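[09:14] KT: can someone run the structure on this one? pasting the chain below
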Amino acid sequence: MREGPQRRRIGFKILGSLECWEGEERIRLGGPLQERVLATLLLEAGRLVPVARLVEAAWEDEPPGTAPHQVRKIIADLRRRLPAGVELILTDGPGYRIALEPDQLDLGLFGVRLDRAREAVAAGLRANAVDQLRAALDLWRGPVLSGLATPVLQAAATALEERRLAATEQLLDLRLELGEAAELVGDLREAARQHPLRETLRGRLILALYRSGRQAEAIEEYGRVRELLAEELGIDPGPELAALHQAILRGSPELAAPPRPAAEEPPQRGPHALGPAPSAIPYDLADFTGREDELERLLELAAAPGDRGTRIIAIDGMGGSGKTALAIHAAHRLAGQYPDGRLHIDLHGFTPQQPPLAPAEAVDVLLRILGLPGDQIPDDLPSRVALWRVVTAGRRLLIVLDNASDAEQVRALLPASADCLVLVTSRVRLVDLDGVESMSLGLMSVADSTALVERTLDGGRAAADPAATAELVRLCGRLPLALRISTARLRKRPLWTVRHLVDRLADETRTLTELSAGERSVAASLRLSYLSMEPECRTALRLLGQHPGTDVDVHSAAALLGVGSAEAEDLLEQLLDAHLLEQQEFGRYSFHDLVRSFAHGLRGADTAEPDAASLTRLLDYYVLAVEAACERLFPGRLSYGVDLPAVAVDLPPLPDTDSALGWFRGEHRSLLAAVRLAARSGRHWHAAYLPRGLTSYLRLQGCPDENQEVGRIAVDSARAAGDLQLLRLGLTNLAVALWPLGRIQEGVACLNEARELAVRLGDRAAEAACLSRLGIFHNSLGEYTEGLDLLHRALPLHRASASPREEAATLVSISSASVQLGRYAEAAEAARGGVDLHRGLGEPDNGALGLINLAAAQLGLGEVDSAMAAFGEAYEIQLRLGQSANTGLVLARLAEAHHRLGRLDEARENGLRALDLIWSSGLTTWKATAENILGRIQYDLDEHLLAQERHGHALRLAEQIGSRIEAAYALDGLALTALALGDPDGAREHRRRADGLFDRMGVPEQYHRPAALRR
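[09:31] RB: done, structure tokens below
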């Protein structure tokens, strides 16, 4: 592996003009676009910046249509210009992220020094804070990002300038507090000159003049600012400035300068003096009952030594299990051990219709409970957390963090002292919280539940009817919240017996067992809402509850309800108004989980027939809608003469490919759920036919696992229905789904069975489709002679059946195999034919895979410019369609092309991006391809160990799926790396195996290297 000289540390400056330095050498960054993109990344250092945001920041006016592509080229250029640019600017999902330490960027240092200043102020070290603020402000060299004028960057510059001014004001305030006056006047005059309308600066200048013994000048300065405000804004000075003026006229002693401290010493021992120790724990339940074992365990954990850090005990359990009551009860038992304060805060992690409390808000609340004035609490979360740790250091505090949503919400609230105890309650286990002791609360025992009812009821009413009390405990699910709600109702109604309440509960909440036990009161409320609605809304709620997906649109709702889309929308909106439906996205409606459970409970024997008819309408609708969408996305599909349901519902308007693709994306999850539901409910025809169009979309989007699942459902359902045509269709689609997963032999078996069925049915078009796909599979196995023979046999059959789409796909497959065999002219001709046919059909991908093969063939023919143009067109198509796996394949082949042209940096960048995209898609076949391509690139970069690892992994993948060509390429790469690493024997063995595979595939010796690398 190559090793270069030790690099000097790189640093960036944006608090002024944009600069980049490596040691003492300034680095040229390129043109304005490069500078704007880099500046945007630096403003968000360490965070993902989407490509769309970079486009917005880079162009002053409307960006060109190619802007996203240009941004990627700009990133590649910056990576070349910056030392270690590949490690510095990282690809991160839909965008990029620059990875820096805080001291590599002046803005990062500015923030660090401001944080240190705030911590110093909180610790009472004002002189230290002054030093930190001066050091922070010294980093500024002029207007931030000067010369990079786009609206996005100007807005960022304005925000940073406001931070600088706030730091300036804080510095001036601290200096005034430390007794400075005369020496401040010059700085204050300059600041006031730069910001003449900022009254706070003028007030500080007037005060400094007064404290310097220059009372007349102070009064004169007030007069000037009053005139300026009247002239510029038509207003008088604010009340604070006016009060200062009056105090000067009176000679108020409050304005006198404080004595200058000789020196400031940090407190040697003990916490800050913040006033009396607070006690904010809520009241304990006088009738707290049960949980003896849990309480004992909790007290044991609390008593454990805390010499290794803050003790944290997290109590988790379902809603209504009594987590808060237990924590509060324990807190009162432990209160005497924490003399510095007992704090409680509700974090609202699971409070209905209220968002969880943000950590910044929670820290603010806790600081105020401790007695810290609000004007001493900083605005941003990091500074608040730092202050919280300062003021809790050395204190013995008991802190109850109630109703937490997750570990992240809690982490910022943990104190710094090992003498503190933190009790956390949450409905989820806080497994991500380090150093925590966890307790999970289950249901109360029957004995404890009965005791709670007896204790919270008066007059022996529970004991009077023990059977009814036991039934009440059962109906309440042994949850403390439900038991307390029930006994509270009894206390308010002294004439009611326990039996009467049990009867009422049985009547009002018949679906209790289907509802979340922690929300039984909500379930009863839902029933009241349901009963208050008109009959058609009640029916709609029940039928919509059958929808198998997570949300529903107007058209699928109309199918379920058996009404037109306009009426369906009216019903959906009524349910939305009644809070029985939610709307997270325009046009799509969803159930809250509890409401869905309630709707499920509405079905019964008396609704079975209309419910079944409703589901059939929904599945009929999905079949027809999928067909309509596929007509737009995949024009020219074969028609197999299958009788489709009659059009009895409104279909969504799909005027073009974009709308069809958008509809599929919106219904993706619902369609998968519909196929599963059809299979579960014995609707074999729907389960067998619906996947036909759905699998085409799933292939387009690169969803191989889902494609395989619905493909298997289709085959099983067709067999169950005894429908040979649907079985042939399902086997063909299942085979295609198996190919990207590398299950080649199983796919061949499916296709052979499908072909036999096509011959038996006399369906020549279907037989041709099977031949084409068999050809693809044989080519994948490296059996090129047999594969090309099958493809050439299928080609005239496709033409005879007037199937241009199948003909195009077959030509593309012929071109792929021909490239591997070095038949470049034949490959180019077939690829052009396939691409032209795809374009003629108007398919959204415009034959992108054909363009990839065309580019590879053109490279073999030496037509470099044409090849790169074809790659570029294929890349733009896949980006537009959002197909990560196909985009990855384009990048992999483009990396191969750059490799051939000697552009190793571009080759590696594209290869790494390709591997990321392909790996996340789960396409085993292309994983081996990408690994081999990247291995060859890294070999020529002298990264022999990495190249060996790549080829080794590619070989394992290729052997797993039976891909001879990728196995041969992997062995070829392993032979080269073994020789480079001093293992000639291993190299000879790898070469022997590789040549054997190439010979069996019929690949001529001069073509044993990949097509793009042949000279």
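[09:33] KT: thanks! The longest helix spans residues 151-177.
[09:34] RB: yep, looked fine to me
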